[in-house]
Amino acid sequence: MALDAARSGFELEPSQRQAAERLAVFGAQVTGRRRTLSRKSPRSLYLHGPVGRGKTWLMDSFYARLQVRKRRVHFHDFFRGLHAGTHNVDAGNGTAIQQSVDALLAEIDVLFFDEFHVHDVGDGMFISRLLRTAAQRRIPLVVTSNYAPDELLPNPLWHDHFVPTIEAIKEMMDIVEINGASDFRRFPAGGSAPVPGPEGFRAGRIIAPGTPRQLGRLGLFTPSPLQSRVLTPTTQPIVVRNSDPDLLWVGFEELCGGLTSTSDFLALAERYATWVIDQVPSPAGAGPDSAPVWQRFSNVVDVLHDQDITLFLIGKGPLDWDVAAPGSALPVDLARIASRLSLLGRSDIDEALAQEEAAGS
After folding, report:
1. Does the keyword Zinc apply (predicted)?
2. 76, 200, 226, 259 - which has most CB atoms within 10 Å?
3. Strand locations in the chain (E)
C-alpha cells in the first residue's frame, strides 16, 4: 500500500502506515488459512477515525491486492439489498432478514464493509444479525467507520439497545484508529497530490447564486416547465425539472423534502451520471423542523460520492456545511458530508458581476 501511495504522489502518515501493516498481517492470515484449510478465523478489523483520513483508500488498496474470495459493500448498498431481500425471498425457507444476510456472506472468505455507521435501531438489528452470522461461519470482516464502536447509534433513546452489539464488535474485531491531523480531501500533505478519489464526483461544483451567466459557463441551462416530468425510481414519485439520458435536474425540496429514501437515490444514480440540484437552501438557516430534509440530503451526497456521480449544487447561498450552529438540524454526519462536498469546485459570483447581472436584467 505504501507503493500505491507513492504512485499516487503522497506518503502514508503514521496512523495510516500502522493500519496498512495491520492489514498486511490480516492478509497473510487469510491466505495462509486457505492454504492450510485451517478453521481458525483471523480477527476482523475495524478501521475508524475522522473524515478524510484515507480509511476507504487503504481498504480499497488492500482489497485490490488480496487474492481470496471477497466482497465489498457500502453501507447504503447493503441496506438497500437487505430491505429488498425482505420483500423478495421465500419466508418458508427461514426469515427474510437471515436469507438476505446468507446471500451477502455466500461463497466468500472476507467481507469488506465501507462507511459503517448505525443511526437507526432497525438497522442496528440487521447489523447484529450480520455480525452473529459472520462469526458463526468464521468469515472475518474489514470495516471502515467515522465512529469508534462506543459511538455507534449515538441517539440516547436507543444507544443502550445496541450496547451488546458494540461489545460483540470489540470482542471479535481489532480496533485500529486512523487519526492523522489533516483531512486529506481538503488539505493534501505538503508537496503531495490529493488523495485519489472519485473523479466524476470531483468534476461537480457548488454554484451560488446560480445566475444564467454562471450556469451557462458550465454548460448548464435552466430547464423550461415543459421539460418537467414525474419519475418513480422505486415506489415514491418524484417531480424533476428535467431528465435527459444522462442528466437529472431536480429541486432540493422535491428531492429531499418528501418521503424519498436512500433506495430512490441509489436507483436514480444507476440511471443518471450527472445530477443538478437547484434551489438548495443555506445550511445556516436549518431549523429544527428541517432535520429529516437535511438527513435525506446527507444520504444523497453519500450515494453520489460512492457511485462517483457528478453533482452540481445551486443555491443563493451561503452554501457552507462547515459551520453548524448549536441545536442545528444538520445531520449528525455533517463532518463527513462537509468533507465530501469540499471535493467540489466553487463558483461564487463576485459583487461586480452581480451588479452587472442586475443592470442587464
Report:
1. no
2. 76
3. 44-48, 70-74, 110-114, 141-145, 173-177, 205-208, 229-231, 238-240, 242-243, 247-251, 274-278, 310-314, 345-348
Question: What does the block give as the cell for 114?
Answer: 465501507
Radius of gyration of the chain (CA): 22
Segment among 4-8, 259-263, 313-317, 331-335 with least mean pLDDT: 4-8
Kindly give the pairing relationship between strand 247-251 and strand 242-243.
Answer: antiparallel
Taking residue 26's Cβ as centre, other Cβ atoms within 10 Å add up to 21
Contact 46, 28 (CB under 8 A): no
pLDDT of residue 74: 83
Give all domains of the chain, ordered by start, each with its CATH number.
Answer: 2-177 (3.40.50.300), 199-360 (3.40.50)
Cα–Cα distance measured from residue 244 to residue 227, given in angstroms and rounded to the nearest whole number: 9
Residue 186 burial by CB count (10 A; 0-12/13-18/19+): exposed, middle or buried? middle
Contacts for 199 with CB less than 8 Å, ≥ 6 apart = 308
Percent of the chain whose predicted confidence (pLDDT) is above 90: 43
Residue 200 CB neighbours (<10 A): 16
Grid coordinates given for 68: 481470496
pLDDT digits (tens, 9 = 90+) for 73-90: 887 777 766 666 555 544
Burial 132-154 (b: 16+ CB within 10 A, else e): eebbeeebbbbbbbbbebeebbe
Close Cβ partners of 42 (under 8 Å, ≥ 6 residues apart): 26, 29, 30, 33, 140
Query: Is the peptide bond prior to 156 cis by the omega test (within 30 degrees of 0)?
Result: no
